[in-house]
Design a protein that fits this description.
Blueprint (H helix, E strand, L loop, with lengths): L3 E7 L5 H14 L2 E8 L4 H11 L3 E4 L2 H11 L3 E4 L6 H4 L4 E5 L8 H4 L7 E4 L2 H10 L5 E3 L6 H4 L19 E4 L23 E4 L3 H5 L4 H10 L5 E3 L8 H6 L2 E4 L4 H6 L5 E4 L13 H7 L12 E3 L2 H11 L8 H11 L6 H12 L1
Parallel strand pairs: 1-2, 1-4, 2-3, 4-5, 5-6, 6-7, 8-9, 8-11, 9-10, 11-12, 12-13
Length: 358
């Protein structure tokens, strides 16, 4: 039997946690050959180890232009994209494309990713489907659910090994997962870990916080926090957030879609509303911040405990981490609105779609 070819465009390493559950289902179907296209950058050695550990068939490209040349030459049946991509009209002469975003967060970029029309975009919920269909009435969207969460829901995710991280598995664990911008990192104290000496702290920065020059101030703070004995700072090779979601007891975050993911596991989230904004996002220019964030941002209060100051965050963390946590019906409805039905079958639905449309 001739297998159909599927290429996954890995422009950024953090696309992988969304791609891999789909890849595993494609392999299990025995109807597809899969290849990962990695874009070269400063962490090539880390990516090579991931390729080896996951036994991925892969190709390397220098940039989007070389990726485009590869797709036009190889003519795969399907190409998965995590973001916008140029010259899709040329690609569509030979291949079909599917967009699969890496998160379900509150930034307007979630919707602008559809500015270039792929053959189909897989989305997570009826609400997302309706909004995108209204914005892009000529495009095709398919509601499949949030496949990044499939491994946790299906019991395939085993979590982290605390001893390997030099942490005490008998202690409660706080996960601090800030985004790169707008971020709360710069608003945290130098001695932040000392406030939680009786807990483990895992800091999972966004990939851009660890890789881009403009965020070197964030790296300086994060590297300082890593010196505390109760802290583990996730490395670039810890590209997948899901083991940390599974293993931690409470999350602190800001404008990250991780808030939705952690809440969906019926665990408490503290939402830091105190953010470090650039001067051109403050005062008279505050409209730029509002423009960057989607209207869903303000609804985070339905699933997370919003705090307006660093001290409030410390106090509330110490209170909530030892209390039982339950999702209200309002919270469950909001999670369903943004992340859809979390039944562990999102990847399966994507594969079914490909089988019917290849």
């Amino acid at each position: 039997m001739n297998k159909s070819s599927v290429y996954f465009d890995v422009q950024e390493l953090y696309y992988l946690p969304q791609y891999l559950p789909v890849y595993n289902k494609l392999r299990a179907s025995q109807a597809f050959d899969c290849t990962f296209i990695f874009h070269k950058g400063k962490f090539n050695s880390v990516i090579k180890k991931i390729i080896n550990d996951k036994q991925l068939q892969s190709l390397w490209v220098e940039n989007k232009d070389e990726a485009l040349d590869t797709y036009l030459k190889e003519k795969p049946d399907w190409i998965f994209l995590g973001n916008t991509f140029p010259s899709l009209d040329l690609i569509h002469k030979h291949s079909k494309t599917a967009q699969l975003g890496h998160g379900v967060g509150p930034k307007k970029s979630y919707y602008s990713k559809s500015d270039t029309s792929t053959t189909v975009r897989f989305v997570e919920s009826e609400y997302r489907l309706k909004r995108l269909s209204e914005m892009y009435p000529k495009d095709k969207f398919e509601n499949v659910g949030f496949c990044k969460m499939d491994p946790i829901i299906n019991g395939e995710e085993k979590g982290i090994n605390f001893s390997k991280l030099n942490l005490d598995s008998s202690k409660k664990t706080v996960l601090y997962a800030p985004t790169f911008y707008p971020s709360s990192i710069e608003k945290f104290a130098l001695d932040f870990p000392e406030s939680f000496n009786d807990f483990n702290i895992i800091i999972k920065p966004h990939f851009f916080s660890m890789s881009k020059e403009k965020y070197k101030g964030q790296r300086k703070l994060i590297n300082h926090w890593s010196s505390f004995k109760n802290v583990y700072v996730a490395k670039v090779e810890d590209y997948n957030l899901t083991p940390f979601l599974y293993s931690c007891d409470l999350m602190i975050s800001d404008a990250s879609s991780a808030i939705i993911e952690f809440s969906a596991l019926n665990k408490p989230v503290i939402w830091c509303k105190f953010l470090k904004l650039r001067w051109n996002y403050r005062g008279l220019f505050s409209y730029r911040f509002k423009k960057r964030m989607d209207k869903d941002y303000e609804d985070y209060s339905k699933i997370a405990y919003g705090v307006d100051s660093y001290n409030d965050m410390i106090d509330l963390t110490r209170l909530l981490i030892n209390e039982d946590h339950y999702l209200s019906n309002e919270s469950k409805n909001y999670l369903k609105k943004l992340a859809g039905i979390l039944d562990g079958k999102a990847s399966e639905r994507i594969v079914t779609f490909l089988l019917k449309n290849t």
